[in-house]
Amino acid sequence: MNDFNPVTLFFILFESMGVWLWALVALALVLLVAIALGVIRLRKVGRSAKRPLMAALVIGVAATAIFTALVPFWTQTSPDSFVAPVDYFFAGFLALVPGGIAGAIVFFLTASRCAARGAESLNSA
User: Fold this and answer.
1) Given 3-state DSSP classes, what are the helix, strand and coil percentages for the chain, each rounded to the nearest 5?
2) What is the largest CA-CA distance in the chain?
3) Suppose 118 and one of 47, 62, 66, 85 were both cysteines; which one would form an S-S bond, judging by CB atoms 3.0 to 4.6 Å apart?
């Protein structure tokens, strides 16, 4: 276990995912920038991030639940292969990827809409 470090993890991921690793890293960076832009827009007009955060949480949890049910088909296994609680745990863990993507997109869209409404109310006052 002394050789188990971040570089080793990188090469394990790169060997198992190939080009998809870079696509997911790029997507994660884009979503991170989108979330930051949403927060910045909300702060500019003095609005809270509570509503966009709650919408993102609801959609993210729903997408995670849906993709948890789809994990056997997604990973090309049979649904009968889930026999232990750890199987369901890892299925939920895998489903967090599309759930997190959906939540980040919903947060950005909702934050942008709330910021636009806040800017309208500031301009009309």
Assistant:
1) 85, 0, 15
2) 63
3) 47
- Residue owning tokens 């080793």: 8
The answer to whether the beta carbons of residues 51 and 111 sit under 8 Å apart is: no
Question: How much is the average pLDDT of 25-39?
Answer: 94
pTM: predicted TM-score of the whole model, two decimal places: 0.81
Binned at pLDDT 50, 70 and 90, residue 125 comes out as low
